[in-house]
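Sequence dictates fold. Below is an illustrative record:

_____
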Amino acid sequence: MIRNRLLILSLLAISLRGMAQDATPPTPQWRPVYHFTPDKYWTNDPNGLIYLNGKFQLYYQHNPQENKWGHMSWGHAESADLVHWKHLPVAIHEVVTRDTTVYIYSGSAVIDKNNTSGFGKNGKGPIVAIFTGDLPKQHKEAQYIAYSNDNGMSYKLYDKDPVIDLNMRDFRDPNVFWFAPKKQWIMTVSMVNEHMVRFYGSKDLKHWEKLSDFGPAGYTKNGWECPSMLPLPVNGNPANTKYVLFVSNFGEHGPQMQYFVGDFDGTKFTNLNPAEKMLRVDYGDCFYAAIAWRDAPANKKILIGWLINGKPETSPWKGQMSIPRDLSLRNTADGIRLFQNPAAIITNSLSKYAKGAVISKTNLPVSGAMKLNGASHLNANSYWIDAEIQPGKSEKSGFIVASDADGSKKIEVGYNAASKEIYVDCSTAENANKDKRNLLQTAPVNAVNGVIRLRVLVDKSSLEVFGNGGEQVISTMIYPDKDATGLSAFASGTAVFKTLKIWDMDR
């Protein structure tokens, strides 16, 4: 949960007071097709992710009254496939009384199947939401719970809230999970300005005991937010499971997330890397506050984050979510590292969501620029590219997306063989919308046997690039002109696109 208005103003170049809702014309050219956006009005952090009755439940920070930050509540949507979303009524509204206001800030939700909380009815356990209540009049944040006995459609606040209150201004974003070895709930929550994650334990979700603190570590130049922790097997081996601790904060180039790999014994998290080591989740300039579905089918851990859009304004909505990402840990030459890939539930059914693979090529030689789209296909800036490129002697190779007719404005996505980096170059197209430091974004990736794999997801105003099977990711926002829809493959010399598939997602 981002609360500091000055930070938002300087890093996102938006005003939280903004223009009136009806003063911003609709911007359908930037409304994503296969990424989640609310039907209207503001969204930021994803919250309360649970999988229930065959549906992914997504709660999210939401202003149900206007298209700017404020009146923080939990919006709600659900999906069977992580592509098509049903918008549901607001699940938890801000609380306003004569004496106080409670904004419903970020948090998590759990299915209390054994009714440890006692909130269930008729022998069925409830859903319990755990979140930060922000009390602006009291200048503090505390941890609240609410419960639902109607499958998460509505929630009732616990009458003895808050359940944890340290009388602190910046203390937020609880994420809770069941730790079976000790038969208790574990909470991670952010001690923002101390750059620490605090661990609490509870048997009933109501009474919490402090267990330990982790931090400071990694990046500490700005406050820590939105912590969460997941167990992941290394190389798919459940006998070698490590914990990944995620933290969001703002860096020199804007929003960022870092992660730590370690062990957790039910009380304390032990980092396997030196304390000063920073591991980035995403090398772009907009991915933030991500948390995961812990209980997805096949025991998948699926991460989804807020893609922060600054300027220009969008309407009638503001903010969107990333593509959901399957998470895994793998051994690398640098140690155990996080890998992320678009969720298999989506990739396994791409042809169902799209118009089919409009382009499918093997061993395609490319020299210079080769146009890929036309009047009837791939002409709406919503597509999905999967390519394996053999750069050969080409220093740069990849794709030009969202290009205008004369190529004066374009976005270049590719691999730089000289620097061994995947990159996104927005320098001719996004000068008015980005900090100059973010016009070129890069992430270190080595080709494997002379081949680099790129997944490029373009969706109207978002761009996500996955390098080498999710070894590194770059996510950013783009705002092409309505007629800037050109798509080409390119190589600075001659490269061979060993495989190339493109799906048109503008269904």
User: Anything to note?
Assistant: The domain at 355-504 is CATH 2.60.120.560 (Jelly Rolls). The chain has two domains: 5-30+42-345, 355-504.
